[in-house]
Amino acid sequence: MTSPKYINSELSNQFQNAVKMSTSPSASFMPGGSPSQFAGSPPSSYFPAAASRRASMKTPAPKLLKPFATEDIKILLLENVNQAAVEMLQSQGYQVEFHKTSLNEDELIEKIRDVHAIGIRSKTKLTARVMAEARNLVVIGCFCIGVNQVDLEWAAKHGIAVFNSPFSNSRSVAELVIGEIIALARQFTDRSNELHQGIWNKVSAGCWEIRGKTLGIVGYGHIGAQLSVLAESMGMSVVYYDVLPIMSLGMAKQVNTLDELCREADFVTLHVPALPETENMISAPQLAAMKNGSYLINCSRGTVVDIPALIDAMKTGKLAGASLDVYPNEPAKNGPYFDTALNAWFEPLSKLKNLILTPHIGGSTEEAQSAIGVEVGQALIKYINEGSTIGAVNFPEVSLRSLTLEDENHVRVLYVHSNVPGVLRTVNEIFAEHNIDKQFSESRGDIAYLMADISGVNAEDIRELYDKLERTPFKILTRLLY
Ligand SMILES: NC(=O)C1=CN([C@@H]2O[C@H](COP(=O)(O)OP(=O)(O)OC[C@H]3O[C@@H](n4cnc5c(N)ncnc54)[C@H](O)[C@@H]3O)[C@@H](O)[C@H]2O)C=CC1
Ligand SMILES: O=C(O)C(=O)COP(=O)(O)O
């Protein structure tokens, strides 16, 4: 990491000056944080002992160490993340800036510059270009399942941990799909639209029960497996295709190829992540392999279905219906128009019969959103306050017991580094003069992460530890909590 991250407001005059030059939080900040000592471009990456004591003096109990002045931490929350998360983060004393929508790239670059943490959902694209502008960012919270919107590798290589909520909205998606299967089989969105226009159209031709039909699930993960159980309970047979061999639930049967699944299923539903391998996974050849008069449902990602090919299959009657919740270019905020300039296929699509179009609402239920808010909010707090990376999607997972105020002469070292030979020897030489209470290290690909609790250190020792770790050639990010 070229630009270090956190301020030391006590131990260095240079840093103190930076702190004095800093501005108060802008008017758009949510209430809850106290006036900030936040430096525009903080020159150091460690947390101040005196500031932490200041913070803990303000809140004497409980005895969980606030290892820095929590009110210095800035968090940007986009895309209307749930209020449960907003309140949790505010209650830590962090400065929380909240926006209902995602931001375009220029706005995002402007906003991300000084924040330590950002919370997003599926719309906000955190590209290398955007993240490179973030001077203090140490953690990203994706308040959703998908993490394809973040350049995970770049983030890891620059010491930025990414967390998500791997299954808090799975049930909501599975229930939506069950609703869509019945809606498509009975053409009920068409009947409803007709009656809204005063047209009574009582028909049974082309309308079916779902009992006894076959559901083909592509991607038998959290959502696919949950859906499998629900579908069987309603009398459907289930086949699934996955790149991994996965134990089936109930009577579901794994098939060997996508082609086989397409040939067997009456309903094909997609539950794979956005990956290069899943791009246009359902295109003309797969649609051709599907049964005549079958149905397609996509609640995964817009990249997975080739929409022009789907339009053709609907127009020829090959498909009797389809349901889309996700699209290649989704708008940043709610509003009257879908951007037809970006999505030339939108107009022909919108005119098709028995085609359900929903605005990416698969995970949008009260239950899912509050559970996600709590889960990701907690992960952010654990990482910021304690360095725990349990549940991170791009980082080695490491945790040590919670910090306490038992020993004031204690420091927790968080050291993200390149996974190369010789690091532990070097680091342990740096630690050698002190008492290491606990140390844990884990690697993931090119990145490794070491946490160590060291006791019997004074402010000077801490400063020295920090400087020495910062000078190591394999360092990506050093944070000290005390
Ligand atoms: N519409 C919405 O609001 C929501 C959409 N999603 C999307 O649904 C996706 C799936 O979610 P989960 O079930 O939680 O994910 P998961 O990670 O639990 O399961 C995905 C499954 O897909 C399989 N897979 C990966 N590549 C594959 C390939 N090329 N062919 C066949 N199988 C493949 C994996 O092995 C895994 O079993 C998410 O990645 C997200 O993009 C998730 C939540 C809400
Ligand atoms: O959880 C996911 O991956 C989703 O697609 C839901 O995204 P959202 O939180 O609605 O932007």
Automatic annotation (TrEMBL):
<dbReference type="InterPro" id="IPR029753">
    <property type="entry name" value="D-isomer_DH_CS"/>
</dbReference>
<dbReference type="InterPro" id="IPR036291">
    <property type="entry name" value="NAD(P)-bd_dom_sf"/>
</dbReference>
<dbReference type="InterPro" id="IPR050857">
    <property type="entry name" value="D-2-hydroxyacid_DH"/>
</dbReference>
<dbReference type="InterPro" id="IPR029752">
    <property type="entry name" value="D-isomer_DH_CS1"/>
</dbReference>
<protein>
    <recommendedName>
        <fullName>phosphoglycerate dehydrogenase</fullName>
        <ecNumber>1.1.1.95</ecNumber>
    </recommendedName>
</protein>
<dbReference type="InterPro" id="IPR006139">
    <property type="entry name" value="D-isomer_2_OHA_DH_cat_dom"/>
</dbReference>
<dbReference type="InterPro" id="IPR002912">
    <property type="entry name" value="ACT_dom"/>
</dbReference>
<feature type="region of interest" description="Disordered">
    <location>
        <begin position="23"/>
        <end position="43"/>
    </location>
</feature>
<keyword id="KW-0718">Serine biosynthesis</keyword>
<comment type="similarity">
    <text>Belongs to the D-isomer specific 2-hydroxyacid dehydrogenase family.</text>
</comment>
<dbReference type="Pfam" id="PF00389">
    <property type="entry name" value="2-Hacid_dh"/>
</dbReference>
<comment type="pathway">
    <text>Amino-acid biosynthesis; L-serine biosynthesis; L-serine from 3-phospho-D-glycerate: step 1/3.</text>
</comment>
<dbReference type="InterPro" id="IPR045865">
    <property type="entry name" value="ACT-like_dom_sf"/>
</dbReference>
<keyword id="KW-0520">NAD</keyword>
<keyword id="KW-0560">Oxidoreductase</keyword>
<dbReference type="InterPro" id="IPR006140">
    <property type="entry name" value="D-isomer_DH_NAD-bd"/>
</dbReference>
<dbReference type="Pfam" id="PF02826">
    <property type="entry name" value="2-Hacid_dh_C"/>
</dbReference>
<feature type="domain" description="ACT">
    <location>
        <begin position="412"/>
        <end position="482"/>
    </location>
</feature>
<keyword id="KW-0028">Amino-acid biosynthesis</keyword>
